[in-house]
Design a protein that fits this description.
alpha/beta; globular; Rossmann fold; 6 strands; metal-binding; disordered C terminus; single chain; 232 residues; 6-stranded parallel β-sheet
């Protein structure tokens, strides 16, 4: 889609979510959830159902799938999930357009950072494996494996940026990312290639793009229009 609410002019920093936004880890996430389901007698799901139900708090998502959190502590489920997910996440592909978007930001003089609900150590290791670690000014993940909100981490990142919150664009793939952006004062933008489907994302008052490639194409078209106006 083309959404004229998106303008990179005036943006000084891009902050990306990681899982589902830059890295295509949906198949791995579904596999890890189903491994948990096998252990705790919960029927398997496919990617369509996963993306239709995935939400924060993640404990509520597991409850919606049929996990009995009264009998099995959520922390125990998360531990089993991460045994599979963290071991294999570096094998997941990046989404199309990742390097191109980062290059476009660099050419425009826009800073780039990550804030993620992944454990920071795993996040850094995966970025290194993908050749991305040096592309970000700040990389902020959780210091625990409790699968909680990343709002606190986003607020801490905003303090480190030292720029007006309204000049930062936060790009994510879930309604939680939209909520995080609003809590910090960042401008939200969502891509539908991640952990929630487009019908869910359209509930937010934010531009929704089909992926980073589509976003990059829109950015490039904005730049061309600006050049034409300047030359008029």
């Amino acid at each position: 889609m083309i959404d004229d609410r998106l303008h990179f002019s005036g943006i000084e920093h891009l902050v990306f979510d990681w899982n589902g936004t830059l890295i295509d880890d949906i198949a791995l996430a579904v596999s890890a959830v189903n491994r948990c389901g096998e252990r705790y007698a919960v029927p398997p799901i496919d990617a369509v159902r996963y993306r239709a139900l995935f939400d924060f708090p993640i404990a509520d998502f597991y409850a919606s799938l049929g996990f009995d959190l009264q009998r099995t502590p959520f922390a125990q489920i998360v531990e089993h999930y991460l045994e599979h997910f963290d071991t294999n996440v570096a094998q997941c592909p990046l989404h199309d357009g990742v390097f191109e978007v980062l290059e476009a930001a660099r050419n425009a003089g826009i800073g780039v950072s990550i804030v993620s609900a992944s454990h920071c150590d795993v996040l850094l290791q995966t970025l290194e494996a993908k050749g991305l670690r040096g592309h970000f000014e700040h990389v902020v993940g959780l210091s625990h494996n409790q699968a909680t909100s990343k709002t606190t981490e986003a607020l801490m990142l905003q303090e480190r940026l030292g720029t007006p919150a309204g000049r930062t664009l936060f790009i994510g793939d879930t309604l939680h990312d939209y909520d995080v952006a609003r809590a910090v004062g960042w401008k939200p933008l969502l891509v539908s290639t991640g952990h929630q489907d487009i019908d869910r994302l359209r509930q937010a008052d934010a531009p929704v793009f089909g992926g980073l490639g589509e976003l990059l194409g829109h950015y490039a078209s904005n730049e061309r229009r600006a050049v034409v106006r300047e030359g008029a």
